[in-house]
Amino acid sequence: MNSAGQTNISRRMRVFLSLSAILVLVFSVRLIDFQIVRAEQISQLSYEKRAVARTIPAIRGDIIDANGTILATTVYRYDINAAPAMVGPVERVIDGATQVTSVEQVAAELARILQEDVATLLPKLTGTSNYVNLKKRVDADTHRQVVELGIPWIFSDAFQNRLYPNGAVAGNLIGFVGTDGKALAGIERQFNACLAGVDGQERFETGVDGIRIPASAVVTQEVSHGRDVVLTIDASLQYQAQQILASEVERLDADWASAVVIEVKTGRIVLAAEAPSVDPNDPGKSPPEERGARAFQFAYEPGSTMKSLTAATAIDLGFANMGTRVSAPDSIRIFDSTIIDSFSHDTMQLTLAGVLRYSSNVGTIMIAQNIPASSRYDYMLRFGLGKASEVGFEGETSGVLNDYRDWDGVTNMTTTFGQGLSTSSVQMTSAYQALANSGVRLNPVLVAGCRDENGEMTSIPKSTATQVVSAQTAQEVVLMLEEVVEDGAIGRATSVPGYRSAGKTGTAEIPEGSGYGDYFATSFLGMAPSEDPQYAIGVMVYKPKQVHTNSQAAVTAYQKILSQVLLTNRISPSTSVSPDIPTEW
Amino acid sequence: MNSLRKSRVSAPVVMILVTGFVAVSLLHLLLTILTSQSVYELSDLKREKRELETTSQILSEEVSSLASNQNLLNTASRLGMVANTNPVFLRLTDQAVLGQPLPAPIASAQSTNLVANSAMIIESTQISQVTVPASTTEPVAIPLEPVVSSSLIPASPTR
């Protein structure tokens, strides 16, 4: 018994141990397979199930004015969507009690918030689809109200959207972006490299409940947010100028009007306004021709405002001075053409100052006819004509200034009073900035630079200074232009009480076909205060129908804008009086 | 004799190791529990941050609307204000008046905003003007507080 029994136990033990050994072997093989052979593959599969990849969107930078006013910024907008397949009554717990709201009632609530018609909303909520858009790009407040309704079958997608808080203020300069966020015009497009950032990428792990596991995030691409573009303009002045121009365009029944103001001592453009203007929040409301910046992009024959530059050239080259006398009839024969003054008169005994005051075409020709064309051409180039300004605004015109060797005999003379060439408003105002700044032309600046989050500025435009005419010449021209404002029939309307100012009228014909049309581009350019000019100003009104025979159309806007510029910048009224300069002899 | 000494020395070491192991395990467990709780707290805080950012955006847009030039002009016009195109300054040092004081040209005042702004989502409170009949000789009481509509943001009490 003992022997037989021990044998049985021993055999059972061996069987048990053998089975155990086999089991351990199987488990060991599996363990080695999981832990060593396929360890990396399994780990990767597990990570991929837990890991989530996410794009960290870069936020586009702001566009701000010289005083920090935000003109363009980035906000979030939301598309409100529904899943019709899931649509049903909504259960809400109110004061501890569950209340069921019917689909029709929920649709009415949605319609009220989304400002839609229930009749158009309800059909969208029926069907078997899992996606239907109810409204695109609602603001954050509306989105929050929708979320607070607690509807389980309503979803939303967030988007970055461009917001222009001041609407059309500087809209023609700022430009706009498309619904896809792509910059389409103006500063937005020109400085896209500064404004646009670079999206980041990160991966992190989540638990079963979707909660992010701490310290699991791995940033594979650092996000780089966009930087800010800082403009030189004053948004408040820009608004006032646009308001004034819009009023004048309406009053004069003009096609459009523009104004440019440049800080004389720095070349900074304080405002570059126009009317009509575009609201970048909704550029589609404006016709294509009103979405650009005409002050930079539109070239016109400057007309009589050119006479100031001709006078400066004549004085600087020693061909004339303020008192140079001419006997100017109201017409003059140049080759086979007759050039006339804007008004008929007997022969006038004018000084150069008088030529400018009465804006005599004939007198200007008589003063300038001995100046070599090459010299006048050279001065025009130095005044900044014939090439786009240093601002380099997108689509900026260089105007038309043909080489003097291509001028015929008539063009040689018409260019002295602003015909036979074309310029932009910025070019002409910049030329007047040179006259106001003791003959030194500074490159006009519209964008002060690109500013990062630490306040460091890059892309700062280089400052260039060109001595176009001598300080003495420039001063004499400014004094002569004072006569236009103080005694000129039209110019005196630009006067701001208490201030000395100087300026010149311009009434340019507009080419149509092979000749000129019935309407004019009327302008007024000048500077103030005359004794120490701080601002150069140019206003142009294009094709005014109500007042179209002389530059009277531009003076009202000029005077109002000038006064606001002086007031806003706390420029003290003049304490001296202008010298009495003879205009006739 | 040697084996007895060895067992006496190793017993405290084993006790320390076991206690240390248990303590570390308990600490690890505690930290795991705390971390798990923090994960949910962190998630809630991030959600709250998003909500606050949204609130900030909503308020910023409203402030931008109220601060826009268009709103300021509309408000000023409603108050009967007109822009004076004649700058005059008072020099504090000698109280000299610089410039030529002239009344604002009401006839040419631009009272309507002509510069579009479709981003304006809110406008300032309309304040009722206090009008004084020409024949009135009695002083007219000026309300201590501006008259405001309760549904809108009140105007500043500054006068």
How would you describe the overall organization of this protein?
The complex is a heterodimer of chains A (585) and B (159). With 585 residues, chain A is an alpha+beta fold. Chain A contains 18 helices and 23 strands. In chain A, the strands form seven sheets. In chain A, strands 2, 3, 6, 7, 10, 18 and 19 form a seven-stranded mixed beta sheet that branches. Chain A has a five-stranded antiparallel beta sheet with strand order 12-11-23-22-21, with helices on both faces. Chain A has a three-stranded antiparallel beta sheet with strand order 1-8-9. In chain A, helix 9 packs antiparallel against helix 18 and helix 11 packs parallel to helix 13. The longest helix of chain A is centred in the N-terminal third of the chain and has 36 residues. The model of chain A has no long low-confidence stretch (mean pLDDT 91). Chain B has 159 residues and is mainly alpha-helical. Chain B is 48% helix and 4% strand. The C terminus of chain B is likely disordered.
